[in-house]
Amino acid sequence: MADHTVPLLELRGITKRFPGVLANDDVHLDVLPGEIHALLGENGAGKSTLMKVLYGLYRPDAGEVLLSGEPSGIATPADAIDAGVAMIHQHFMLVPTLTVAENVALGLADNGMLLDTTAVAGRIRELSARYGLHVDPSAYVWQLAVGERQRVEIVKALYRDCRLLVLDEPTAVLTPLEVDELFVTLRTMAADGVGLIFISHKLDEVLALSDRITVMRDGRVTGETTPGQTSKGELADMMVGRAVQLAPDRPAADVGEVRLAVDGLRVMGDRGLESVTGCTIEVRAGEVVGIAGVSGNGQRELAEAVAGLRQPTGGTVAIDGTDVTGQHPSRVRAAGLAYVPEERMRDGVVGEFTVAENLILVDHDRDPYCRRGLLRLGAIADACRDLVARFTVKTPSLETTTSNLSGGNIQKLILARELSGEPRVLVAAQPTRGVDIGAAEYIHRRLIDERSSGTAVLVISEDLDEVLALSDRVAVMFAGRIVEVMDVADATVERLGLLMAGTGVEEVGAA
Amino acid sequence: MGDFFTVASLVFVVGSGIRLATPFLLAGLGEAIGQRSGVLNLGVDGVMLLGAFGAYWTIYETQSPVLGVFVGLGVGLVMGVVYAVITVGLKAEQGISGIGIFLFGLGISDLLFQKQVGTPFPIRGFGDWHVPLLSDIPKVGEMFFQHSVLVYVAFALVPAVAFLLNRTTFGLNVRAVGENPAAADSLGVSVARVRTTTILMANTLAGLAGAVLSIELGIFQQNLTNGQGFIAIALVYFGAWRPVGVMGGALLFGLVSATVLQWKTLGLVSGAASSLTAMAPAVLTILALVVISRTVGQPAALTRPFERGH
Ligand SMILES: Nc1ncnc2c1ncn2[C@@H]1O[C@H](COP(=O)(O)OP(=O)(O)O)[C@@H](O)[C@H]1O
Ligand SMILES: [Mg+2]
Known about the structure:
The complex is a heterodimer of chains A (511) and B (310). By secondary structure, chain A is α/β, with parallel strands linked by helices. Chain A has three domains: 9-240, Rossmann fold (3-Layer(aba) Sandwich); 245-336 and 423-511, P-loop containing nucleotide triphosphate hydrolases (Rossmann fold); 345-421, no CATH class. Chain A is 33% helix and 26% strand. Chain A is built from 18 helices and 22 strands. The longest helix of chain A has 16 residues, at 176-191. Chain A is globular. The relative contact order of chain A is 0.10. Chain B is an all-alpha fold. Chain B has a single domain (14-118, 136-292), classed as ABC transporter involved in vitamin B12 uptake, BtuC. In chain B, 71% of the residues lie in helices and 2% in strands. Chain B has helices at residues 7-36, 44-62, 65-89, 94-116, 140-144, 149-167, 169-179, 181-186, 191-217, 228-238, 243-265, 271-278, 280-292; strands at 128-130, 146-148. In chain B, strands 1-2 form a two-stranded antiparallel ribbon. The radius of gyration of chain B is 20 Å and the shape is globular. Bound molecules: adenosine-5'-diphosphate and magnesium ion. Magnesium ion is lined by residues 47-48, 90, 168 of chain A.
C-alpha cells in the first residue's frame, strides 16, 4: 500500500496555448500505480494536448509534470520512453511498410549496429502470450486490420517496460468484441502495477473500465469522480456543460416506396482488390437504414459507388426508380441523392474555400445562385445566411475559411448544403465521427427529421450506439456484403458484434 | 561502315556500358538513400559538377588522381552540409532548394573552371585495373574485369547500401523516417539526425560521381554532366528505391548510351538520326518510369519536412 500514496504521475497546473486557443488551462491530474484513470471529454477539450505535454511532444506554457513525486524532466519522446512512459496515439504511430517486429524494434535503446529482429520477434511472442495479444511479428503492418494494429501499439509499449501507459481514444476503431479483449489486456497491465490513462468520449466504456474519471471541457477540468459515484447523464452534463439528450426521439416510421435500391453491387477498392462483393440493400421513403460494420469491410466503397464517385464493376444502383449505376455524380444528384461523405475534409468541403462558397458548391451553377454564367452574390449571401442560421453553424462570418471551423460545424455545413436541395435519398457516412456530443445530438435530430419528412436515409457508421439510435432497420456489412438486415428492435450489441466479426448467422442463433 | 553485331563490337558495348553506368550508379545510390529517409535532392547534378571540377582541378594541379577523388568526396560532403542546413535545419521546401543547389553548382563550377584553368587540359586518371585471373577469361574478362578501380568501388557499393538499409539499425531508422517520421520521433528516433546523415551520404556520393565522370573522361568543361544527375534521380524511381533496382537502371542506361555511341562510331547513324538516337536513353527511361512508377509506392514522407506536433 505504501507506494500507492505517491502518485505515479502528477500533472500540476498544466497550461498550453495555441494561437487563438487555450487548449489546456491549469489542468491537474494524478494517476496511482495500478490505476486505470479515464480522461473524458469532447473533441477539442484538450485531452490529446495534455497527453502530448506529458510525452514531451509539446512544451507547456505553465505547470509541471511529476513522476513518482519527482520532476519528470521529460522534454522529448525519447525522455518519456526512458522514464517508462508509453503512449498510444489517437492516430497510430506505425510504419506500414515495416514488419511488426521492425516497428517494435524501432528506436530501442539496446539495438546494436546490426538489426536483430529475431530476438525482438521472440520477445514479442512472449509478451503476446502473456497478455493475450495475438500478433504475428513477421507480418507487415499494412497487411493488418485496425484491431491488430492497435495490438502492435500495445506490444510496443509493453516491450519498453512502461510503468505509465496513455491510450488516446483506443476504442474508436474497434469492434465491441475487440473492445472487450482490449479491456482484459488493460486490466492485466493494471494488475501488474502499470498506471493507465484511458482517453475516451464514450461514457459506457469509461464507466465499465476505469477506477477514476477526470472530465475535461474547453481545456479545463470540470470534474473528478469514480464510476460508483456517477452516472452516464451526470458525466455527459460535465462533458458538455448542459443537459444532453443522449438518444434522439424517434417518432413511429411511416414507410413508403423503395427509394434507394442497390442490387448485387461489386466495387474495387484502392488496393485493386474487390471491396464490395455483391452488396444488396434497399432503403424506403421515411425510414433510416443503418449499416453497421468494422471499417474496411467495403462501407466506404459502397457509399462512394452509390454517390457516383467510384465506378462499380457489377450490379446496379437505382435512385427513385432511375438507374444511376456508374453515372457521373451530377447525374446521381439530379436523380435525388444527397451525400454526406465519410472523409469530410477531402470529399465534403474544399477546406480553403469560404463557408459561403462551400454552401453553394453543388448548386453554384443554377438559379438562384447563378444566372447567365454570373454568380449572384446578393442572392448567395441571403441563402447562405439563412442556411447557417437554420443549421446553427457556428462561424464568425460567411467569408471565414472553412478549414478553420470545428469538425462539428463543418459537418453541419455539409448537412445544410445537402439537405437544402430537398433530396429523395440521403446517404450519410460516419455522420458524427470526430464531432462533439452537442453537434452530434443536433445532427442526429436533423437526420431523424429528414426521415420523418419522407426522405429515405442510409446511415453508415462504425459507432454501434449511433446505428442503434438512428435506425429503423439495421444492416451489418462484412467482407463487402450485407450479411443480415434486421429490425432495430431485434438488434442487440452482442448480436451485431458477432455479425460484424464475421461470425456466421447459425452461430449467432446458437449463442 | 562496320557491323554492329560482331563479338568485338558487343564486348566493347558491354565494357563501355558498365563504365558509363558508374556515375549514374553512384549518384543514384546516394539519392536512393536520401529518398528512403524522405529527402528529395534535386541538386545532384550541381553537386556532381562541383565534385567533377574539384577532382579535375586537384589532379590538374597535383597530378594525383587519389587526391582528386578525395576532393570530389569532400566537395560533396560540404554541399551536403549546405543542403542539410537548408532543408533539415531551416525546413525549406526541398524541390526549390534542390534546384537552387543545381544552379549554384552549374554556375560556380564553370566560373572556377574559366578563372583557374581556362582551356580543357587533359588530366591523368587511374588506368584500368585488371582483376587477377578473372580478367584473363576471354571476352568476359574484357567486359567486366578490366576497369578503373572506381568502377569496382561503385558496384561494390550496391550490396553495401542494400545491407545498410535492410540489415542495420540505422537503415531501419532511415526507412521509418521516410515513411512515417512522426512514428519514428515518438519512439525517440531523431528525424533530424537521420535525415542529416542521409543527406551527407547522398551528397558525398554525388560528389564522387562527379569526380568519376571527370577523371574517367580526363577533362572538364562547362556543364560536363549534361543532366546526368537528373537522370540519376529518375533512376531511383526506376529502381523502386532499391539499390539493386538503381543498379539495373544505371546499367540499362549505360548500355543504351554505349550502343548509341558504337552506332555512331561505326557510322550506322548520322545527321538527324544520330541526334534522335542520342535521345534513346532518355526516352527509354521515361517509358520505363511510366510503367514502373504506377506499381510501386514512393516513401510516404518524401519531400515533407518534419516538425514535431504537426
Ligand atoms: N498543433 C495545434 N495547433 C493549434 N491548435 C491545436 C493544435 N492541437 C490542438 N489544437 C487545438 O487545441 C484544442 C484541444 O485539442 P485536442 O487536445 O486535440 O483535444 P481533444 O484531444 O480533447 O479532442 C482544440 O481546440 C484544437 O483545435
Ligand atoms: Mg484527441
